[in-house]
Every structure is written in structure tokens, then in C-alpha cells.
Amino acid sequence: MTETIVVKIGSSSLTSEEGGLNRERIAFFARELAALHESGRQVLLVTSGAVAAGFRKIGYAARPKIVHEKQAAAAVGQALLMQAYQEAFASYGADGGIGVAQILLTRADFSNRRRIQNAQLTIEELLKQRMVPIINENDTVATDELKFGDNDTLSALVGNMVKAKRLVIITDMDGLYTEDPRKNPAARRIERVDQISDDILSIAGGAGSSVGTGGMRSKIEAARIAMRGGIPAFIGRVVEPGDLMLAVDGNGRGTYFDTSLHNLPMKKQWLGFHSMPQGRILVDEGAERALLLGGKSLLPAGIRAIEGDFHPGDVVEVCNLRGETLGRGVVNYAAWQAQAAAGLSSEEVRRRVEVVRMEVIHRDEWVTLKA
């Protein structure tokens, strides 16, 4: 079976700090991706860079922060970005070069099973025809509430959607370190991770560069999404010819993330990573232990607060009293029923609240997201 590889390249790798495209770097990455393509693999590129490429062209002095200005810059920059990729890939392959295709997605697309199935079928046909799909978030229509936040997350969702052999997230650091190596020269690179714990997330740091939005932490979060879908991930540098092939083959400059303990069925992948929660349920420590350690359903007795207006069959997020997300589930209660039943024993619920099922969220309709 043909291997499918998803590669994510961020703004800082494609543009300058001052804005505008770095054509030399785009040509380099096209050469690396073309080598993968010509090895017989199917290649998808998840790219950032539209806003960074467009804000100077539109006349802004710095990367904009107001939503409609960012969207305008993205509209200009996306065209420049695709033109640059098309020209770069034209130098490789036969019959006028390797063909590329633009696909723009939003968070809302992934929450709608029919729309994401259509996107999946389109991508599969493009790959079958030996094209390189180039995927970006549709920044011109995405709102802050419905954005991925960065294309690291988008790349992981795409990887799961196409059942990729590997996700490669390219960054300006050669993997995850025990500490920031720019501050502590004694910091050690972590070669392999088989479980992303809170400790791993805490050493991943925060912000990205001035031209991008994703720091190391967002890349680790993306690796976790990929791992839960059974997709191994790599985070590291691609700076020399052949580095991308080495990364795909398991010999790259970076950190590898295993999948052996984390494979989720497709239904729970959708629930955990694609669905859009319609509310939140806050639970006590007993309910937290039951959900995370006991494999139990969520009962009314463990509920402490309800947020949002949801209905039976909706997806909700479940958090502990510290506000940490524990997971997501499909609720059997409307918000008003959950509010009325909160903190009550099963016997009290039967007497006071009209419900179809005792479980607020059945364990079969639950996915854990906390490490």
C-alpha cells in the first residue's frame, strides 16, 4: 500500500521576519517534498504563511492583529503563496512538473461529518492522480472562536483523516528538549516520546515567532492528536538536502512520537478532535477519577456546574474544578436537566427529574483528552 506523508511547514520557515515570502526557502522545501513524491509516496503539504506573505503587500507595516485586517492580508497572501509553490514544483517531475492543488479548510468543516468526508474524497482523488494537495486554514472566513489556532492542529487532523503513515512538523528547533537549549546549553534533546504527559507539555514552552502563531507546545499538542489517531509524528528541523527523507525514514534531526498506546477508533477521533462542544460540565474529584481511571460513565452525582445550552445528542466538554479539560462526550441530558440533576444521587434523580437514561454521558460515548 502506498504510504501517505503529511508535512507541515510554518510561517517562520517560509517568510522573513519583516514579512513577505522567502522564495529560496520555498524552492528548498519544494525540492525536499518532490524527492518524497518521486520515491513513490503520496505527499500532502499543510502550509502556513498566508498572512505573513500578504501583510506587506497590502500595505501594513507589521503583522496585523485586528481580525478583518488579518483576513484581508490572508486573502492577498494565499494567492502569492500558491503561486510560489506552483512555480517551485514546476521544476520537478515530468510533463510540466508536479501538480499542486489548493484546499482551504476551517474548524467548522471538521465538525461536520459530511463536509469532512467530501474533503477526504477530494484529497484521495488528488493523491490518486499524483498531485500534491496544499492545505491551509481558510483565514478569510474563519473567526477566532472557530479557528484551529495554528496549523499544527490542522496538520494532525489532516493526518488522521487520510490515515497517514507519518506526520512531519517542521520547526526551527531540532526537536523537544528537557529545557530551552537557547537558555541552557546543558539541555538534552528528547529522542523519542511514547506518552505525552503534563510534564512533557510543561517543558514545551509557549509562544512562537513574530510571523507565526504556533510554538513548541502547539506542536506537541498536534503530535498528541496524531498519536491518538494511530499516526506517528516527528517534530524537528529540515535544513539540509535530504533531511525530510531522513525524518520520514526515522533518522531525522528531532523528536519522534510513537503510537503504540494511543490508537483511537474513528468515531472517537471525531468526538475528541473534530466535534464542536456545545457546552461544558464541571465535575468533582470523584467523577474525575471515575472517568479517567475507572472507565465509568458520568452520573449526575458528580456534576458541580453546567455551562452553555445543550441538548441530548450534543457534544460537551467535561472539566474538573480547576478548569482542566478531561474529555468530551455525547450527552443524554439537556442543559436544564443536567442542572436540575447536578449533585443528586440516582434515586433522587428518578424522583425529581424526568430523564430517559441515568448516565449523563455513557462511557461508550466518551473520549478522554487529559494526559
Quick take:
With 371 residues, this protein is α/β, with parallel strands linked by helices. The chain has helices spanning 11-14, 23-38, 50-58, 67-89, 107-111, 113-128, 151-161, 198-203, 216-228, 243-248, 266-274, 285-292, 335-341, 346-352, and strands at residues 4-9, 42-47, 100-105, 132-137, 166-170, 192-193, 233-237, 253-257, 279-283, 303-308, 315-320, 325-331, 361-368.
Key traits:
single chain; 371 residues; alpha/beta; Carbamate kinase; Archaeosine Trna-guanine Transglycosylase, Chain: A, domain 4; 2 domains; eight-stranded mixed β-sheet; five-stranded mixed β-sheet; 14 helices; 38% helix; elongated
Task: Write up this protein.
By secondary structure, this protein is α/β, with parallel strands linked by helices. It has two domains: 4-267, Acetylglutamate kinase-like (Carbamate kinase, 3-Layer(aba) Sandwich), CATH 3.40.1160; 277-368, Roll (Archaeosine Trna-guanine Transglycosylase, Chain: A, domain 4). It contains 14 helices and 13 strands. The chain has helices spanning 11-14, 23-38, 50-58, 67-89, 107-111, 113-128, 151-161, 198-203, 216-228, 243-248, 266-274, 285-292, 335-341, 346-352; strands at 4-9, 42-47, 100-105, 132-137, 166-170, 192-193, 233-237, 253-257, 279-283, 303-308, 315-320, 325-331, 361-368. The protein has an eight-stranded mixed sheet with strand order 3-4-2-1-5-7-8-6, sandwiched between helices. The protein has a five-stranded mixed sheet with strand order 10-9-11-12-13, with helices on both faces. Helix 2 crosses helix 4 and helix 7 packs parallel to helix 9. The chain starts with a strand and ends with a strand. 45% of the residues are buried. Residues 206-214 have low confidence and may be disordered.
